[in-house]
């Protein structure tokens, strides 16, 4: 992909706002992909729409080769100390892609020792900020150079549409690295006046060895959200990948070392939460933890950090985001945007608009048009051109979503469309819509993390504000209205870290992201993310006979 096109694609998560339709781009499938049977080209009939057996297609075989599967410690790829490995699985088929080194507490300790040495004795925190920025810029160039292979590996391991990975997420990773490269030499302290003869400096220093734990739904983007600011501030890192999606982080970390990153600065441990994750959170020589994942696991991370060395923690956790459609809205546009807000990334998005509140005057029309849109949703092999929805991540999530769908039916919500698995192979689920959803239902309160849209009815502004805020979560919200006064009222009243007005899922590098309430602590991206990785130190020096104060 040309660099200019890459930068344009990365300007926002999907550049989808108002009239945008979340269908895949018409770009041809690149040479990185080929049919498993050797056939050339793609037949239109192979694009399976909801209601047909998407998983019955012959899976496309990605030509990208699985590269590194070992742990990355002190600049080298090494086996786990135990010698154990675990499988990472293709969600299209349930078949094993590769076996990956399974790190545990001993490996975490080895990685922390390497990171500590790199911080205390190595060149990274002592390097000029300009040189650190040059390494991050070279890294961004390498990401662009390997765009198609990185995207193919991400799709293979995760199940998200290839066109989403190649044209949105990989370019966004490069954009994030350039954004944080720009920050490296703009982190500075202050000289502040004192009430007496003292010279006072306020320094912003790197915090030290940082532990980071990323999720499986956006492996590359979460890697960028975590690694970018930590490196820009001069820290060293031990990062644990999600056991479902370990491959892409290993691939791009090799590129980062090729760009000139010193050994020991970034260490990658693949493994499981109860072993590697817990060891990292409770390690006495880790200075800070950053975690993205479920709220329940976030509580465990916070407790382990407190019980060990009281290390500071930032958490980006779950959500149950309201998407509010007012009666003045253009219904066709609102339906399209609400569809995108929920079904994007197979519904596996922490900020998904999973509570769709629609004004009673337009409710019936909205439900019928939402059903029609869901029935047109293209579900199938994520490597195929035009596919909007691939499989869920794994069997556990697949079965969990189906249980939530059953709960919705059992609780009396109206199943408008969908409600079942799709095909006999892989983890595909029909795009599902419930209407007549009540606030007390399980599907209204808990994070489903799947392609299940719940549509609620409301009749006035004060009512919808109260109901939208009646959640333990506060990660994001969407507002769709043509009335500026209504938009202003809602944006100030909704208790959420991000409110999108007439758009959704806009994730530019400079926009802070994080939640209220049980959706987390702290912010990712933007200038606020740098604060997570800096210590503030006051240096006060006595002055003798100063000419001025």
UniProtKB/TrEMBL annotation:
<dbReference type="InterPro" id="IPR016160">
    <property type="entry name" value="Ald_DH_CS_CYS"/>
</dbReference>
<feature type="domain" description="Aldehyde dehydrogenase">
    <location>
        <begin position="77"/>
        <end position="539"/>
    </location>
</feature>
<dbReference type="InterPro" id="IPR029510">
    <property type="entry name" value="Ald_DH_CS_GLU"/>
</dbReference>
<dbReference type="InterPro" id="IPR016161">
    <property type="entry name" value="Ald_DH/histidinol_DH"/>
</dbReference>
<dbReference type="Pfam" id="PF00171">
    <property type="entry name" value="Aldedh"/>
</dbReference>
<protein>
    <recommendedName>
        <fullName>Aldehyde dehydrogenase domain-containing protein</fullName>
    </recommendedName>
</protein>
<keyword id="KW-0520">NAD</keyword>
<dbReference type="InterPro" id="IPR016163">
    <property type="entry name" value="Ald_DH_C"/>
</dbReference>
<keyword id="KW-0560">Oxidoreductase</keyword>
<dbReference type="GO" id="GO:0004029">
    <property type="term" value="F:aldehyde dehydrogenase (NAD+) activity"/>
</dbReference>
<comment type="similarity">
    <text>Belongs to the aldehyde dehydrogenase family.</text>
</comment>
<dbReference type="GO" id="GO:0019752">
    <property type="term" value="P:carboxylic acid metabolic process"/>
</dbReference>
<feature type="active site">
    <location>
        <position position="316"/>
    </location>
</feature>
<dbReference type="InterPro" id="IPR015590">
    <property type="entry name" value="Aldehyde_DH_dom"/>
</dbReference>
<dbReference type="GO" id="GO:0005739">
    <property type="term" value="C:mitochondrion"/>
</dbReference>
<dbReference type="InterPro" id="IPR016162">
    <property type="entry name" value="Ald_DH_N"/>
</dbReference>
């Amino acid at each position: 992909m040309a660099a200019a096109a890459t930068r344009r694609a990365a300007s926002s998560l999907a550049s989808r706002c108002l009239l945008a339709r979340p269908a895949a781009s018409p770009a041809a499938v690149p040479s990185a992909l080929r049919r498993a049977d050797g056939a050339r080209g793609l037949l239109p009939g192979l694009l399976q729409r909801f209601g047909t057996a998407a998983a019955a297609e012959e899976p496309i075989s990605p030509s990208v080769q699985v590269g590194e599967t070992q742990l990355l410690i002190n600049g080298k790829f090494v086996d786990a100390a135990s010698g154990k490995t675990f499988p990472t699985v293709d969600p299209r088929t349930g078949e094993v892609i590769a076996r990956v080194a399974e790190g545990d507490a001993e490996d975490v300790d080895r990685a922390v020792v390497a990171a500590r040495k790199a911080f205390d004795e190595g060149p990274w925190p002592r390097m000029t900020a300009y040189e650190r920025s040059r390494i991050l810029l070279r890294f961004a160039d390498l990401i662009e150079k390997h765009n198609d292979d990185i995207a193919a590996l991400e799709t293979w391991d995760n199940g998200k549409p290839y066109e989403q990975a190649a044209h949105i997420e990989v370019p966004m990773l490069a954009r994030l690295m350039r954004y944080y490269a720009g920050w490296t030499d703009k982190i500075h302290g202050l000289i502040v006046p004192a009430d007496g003869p003292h010279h006072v400096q306020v320094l912003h220093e790197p915090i030290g060895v940082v532990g980071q734990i990323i999720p499986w739904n956006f492996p590359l983007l979460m890697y960028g959200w975590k690694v970018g600011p930590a490196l820009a501030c001069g820290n060293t890192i031990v990062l644990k990948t999600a056991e479902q999606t370990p491959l892409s982080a290993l691939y791009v970390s090799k590129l980062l070392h090729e760009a000139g990153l010193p050994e020991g600065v970034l260490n990658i441990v693949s493994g499981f939460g109860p072993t590697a994750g817990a060891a990292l959170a409770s390690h006495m020589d880790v200075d800070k933890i950053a975690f993205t994942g479920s709220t329940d696991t976030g509580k465990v991370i916070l407790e382990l950090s407190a019980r060990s060395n009281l290390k500071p923690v930032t958490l980006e956790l779950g959500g149950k985001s309201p998407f509010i459609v007012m009666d003045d809205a253009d219904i066709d546009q609102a339906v399209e945007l609400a569809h995108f807000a929920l079904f994007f990334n197979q519904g596996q998005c922490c900020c998904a608009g999973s509570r769709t509140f629609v004004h009673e005057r337009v409710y019936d029309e909205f439900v019928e048009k939402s059903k029609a849109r869901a029935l047109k949703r293209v579900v199938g092999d994520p490597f195929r051109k035009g596919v909007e929805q691939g499989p869920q991540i794994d069997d556990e999530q697949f079965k969990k979503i189906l249980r939530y769908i059953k709960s919705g039916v059992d609780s009396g919500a109206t199943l408008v469309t969908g409600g079942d698995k799709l095909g006999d192979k892989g983890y595909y689920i029909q795009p599902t819509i419930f209407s007549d959803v009540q606030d007390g239902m399980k599907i209204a309160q808990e994070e489903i993390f799947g392609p299940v849209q719940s549509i609620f009815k409301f009749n006035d502004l004060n009512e919808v504000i109260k109901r939208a805020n009646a959640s333990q979560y506060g990660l994001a919200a969407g507002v769709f209205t043509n009335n500026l006064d209504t938009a202003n009222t809602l944006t100030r009243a909704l208790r959420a870290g991000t409110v999108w007005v007439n758009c959704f899922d806009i994730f530019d590098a400079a926009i802070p992201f994080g939640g209220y309430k049980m959706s987390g602590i702290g912010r990712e991206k933007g200038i606020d993310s740098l604060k997570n990785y800096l210590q503030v130190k006051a240096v006060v020096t006595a002055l003798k006979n100063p000419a001025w104060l």
